[in-house]
Write a structure and sequence with these properties.
221 residues; alpha+beta; seven-stranded mixed beta sheet; three-stranded antiparallel beta sheet; 10 strands
Length: 221
Amino acid sequence: MPLLRSSAELLLEQLLANRAVPRLTRQFTFDVGHMPSSGEVRSWESSLPVIMGDLRDAGLDDLEVLVEHRLPLSSKRTDVILCGQHPRTGDPNYLVVELKQWARAQADPEDVELVRVDAYGDRPVLHPGRQVQNYVDYMVDFVRALDANPDAVKGAAYLHNAAESGVASLRLRPETGPADCSPRMTAGAGWTTCVPSSRRTRARPRRMRSCRLRSRRVSNS
């Protein structure tokens, strides 16, 4: 279940009115049993207005948005899931977005699955592409709605504070989506790394009537 579920348009309005983050904080406290960390709150304040604004600018503000969606049978949460319909087939499509505030990051020279970011010192962290791909793979395994069409869910790591030159080495890890993209449902199969880029006209996905991402039942036998 997500902490917050809304259209991108309404969520942007709530963010600009300083209502969305307090709502997320209250729901997080209710669900988890303690207050979110200050870093978590800062991430919501920094990243959510950017991606919602980008969706508005791309004409996709009627997409349904799930914020901090908890994965089935797990304590892990995705940052954002965008829910829509494929512009040509009308089939349900889901884009899992991992949001990063990094301005610069370098691929680890010994392991493309890891990256180095100044804020973490000498300790490498998981590549955001691997992180979001793990989420996608997990959802395909556990979400009943994806049984008939596992390709309906895609992933993207969106480094909204970065220029291409600051994160270029992250592409040493193979991508399966386009080399540059703005957040939209047609980001490509698997995952891709997104940095801010000029808007390109593409077929516009339609909003779904309802975003159905229920986990399948697991037998205890």
